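Field log, afternoon session.

UNIT: design team B
ACTIVITY: writing a sequence onto a fixed backbone
BACKBONE:
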């Protein structure tokens, strides 16, 4: 619809107004017809938005576990610094004691040198642990998007709470220090105890149940399944392009336009009875559809590819669940082992130091006991942290770990 207004600035001041309207319509009757064909672009755009939301939500869950892993890793290294410091102090005291006893002839110069060498190694390990802590702290800052010179305050009590929780589990398991067990004869049959599931943690689900939950909740799997539906719709669209192109069209024009040459003509009106009308049928038979036929075949190939991607994603989800549950079981057993190792190492250190005073052991025995204690302490802390990360990881892999709008995770509460 348009309006023309012409007015000549001449002596007679003539003017003329033109009003005109044009309309056209095109209706596909075969190729390109149908609601699902017309709305395909809009449908795909809407689904792409949903996929983006799923992928971002999945990223938040993965990133939350990554941040927790890095944070607890820094706390674990801080505990290693403390253990290395205590080991260093203990070896310094052992060196002092050895130097005092050399005058009485109870220690040789070689044993004293051995104590000094162990003290130097302990100092090197202490410094190395400190520098490793600083490196991990800087890496954690970068992960959070902070500059490396930013000051952040860690919460060591978080690790203490995890250790207290582990101690409660060990008490529930009946791990006692200093218990005497009946010693079988040397030629008795050795029965190796298998890793037990008798007292699992709260997130050590039944593998079959965990797999079913994961297949229902994993957002990345939903995206892969949605891609299959997209390819099925693409096949229908590609098949539609192989049809004949039959289009009904019509045009209509009303009124008239005005220019300088028509300034002396009377004003035009929209008269539907004097309009120009055109109607027709455009037919394009499908004699040549090579490109469309190739696209149709490609759409079927893409459907097969999307289907295989779903199957692969399902297998990957199942593997993630099985690996996560295996890791939890292994870490829980390792927690029991390292707890016993710490208890035995502490007993060895106390016993060898007393025997060293009595001259019943060599300085090498004290050094080895302290090295084993340091290793057991670090391994115990590592097991505590690894088990906690495993709990978060299995919730992430099952699709149960939720992240709210403030970036705070909400853990699943098993019955």
């Amino acid at each position: 619809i348009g309006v023309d207004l012409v007015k000549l600035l001449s002596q007679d001041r003539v003017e003329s107004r033109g009003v005109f309207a044009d309309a056209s319509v095109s209706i596909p009757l075969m190729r390109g017809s149908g609601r699902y064909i017309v709305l395909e672009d809009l449908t795909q755009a809407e689904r792409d938005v949903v996929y983006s939301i799923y992928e971002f939500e999945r990223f938040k869950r993965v990133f939350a576990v990554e941040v927790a892993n890095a944070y607890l890793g820094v706390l674990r290294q801080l505990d290693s610094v403390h253990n290395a410091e205590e080991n260093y102090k203990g070896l310094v005291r052992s060196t002092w004691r050895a130097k005092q006893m050399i005058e009485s002839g109870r220690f040789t110069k070689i044993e004293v040198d051995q104590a000094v060498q162990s003290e130097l190694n302990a100092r090197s390990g202490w410094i190395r642990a400190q520098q490793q802590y600083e490196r991990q702290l800087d890496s954690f800052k970068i992960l959070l998007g902070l500059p490396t010179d930013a000051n952040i305050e860690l919460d060591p009590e978080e690790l203490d709470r995890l250790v207290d929780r582990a101690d409660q589990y060990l008490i529930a398991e009946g791990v006692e220090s200093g218990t005497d067990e009946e010693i079988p004869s040397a030629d008795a049959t050795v029965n190796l105890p298998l890793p037990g599931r008798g007292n699992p943690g709260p997130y050590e689900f039944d593998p079959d149940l965990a797999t079913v939950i994961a297949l229902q909740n994993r957002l990345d799997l939903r995206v892969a399944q949605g891609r299959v539906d997209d390819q099925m719709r693409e096949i229908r669209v590609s098949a539609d392009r192989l049809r004949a192109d039959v289009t009904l069209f019509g045009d209509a024009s009303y009124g008239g336009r005005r220019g300088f040459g028509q300034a002396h003509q009377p004003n035009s009106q929209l008269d539907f009875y004097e309009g120009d009308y055109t109607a027709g049928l455009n037919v394009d038979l499908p004699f040549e559809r090579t490109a469309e036929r190739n696209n149709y075949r490609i759409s079927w190939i893409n459907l097969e590819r999307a289907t295989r991607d779903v199957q692969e994603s399902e297998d990957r989800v199942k593997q993630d669940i099985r690996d996560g549950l295996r890791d939890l079981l292994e870490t829980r057993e390792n927690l029991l082992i390292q707890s016993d190792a710490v208890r035995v190492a502490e007993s060895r250190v106390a016993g060898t130091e007393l025997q060293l005073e009595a001259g019943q052991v060599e300085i090498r025995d004290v050094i080895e006991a302290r090295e084993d204690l340091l290793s057991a302490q670090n391994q115990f802390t590592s097991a505590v942290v690894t088990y906690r990360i495993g709990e978060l990881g299995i919730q992430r892999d099952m699709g149960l770990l939720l992240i709210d709008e403030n970036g705070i995770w909400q853990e699943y509460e098993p019955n």
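LOG NOTE: The first helix runs from residue 35 to 38.
NEXT ACTIVITY: expression trials, pending approval
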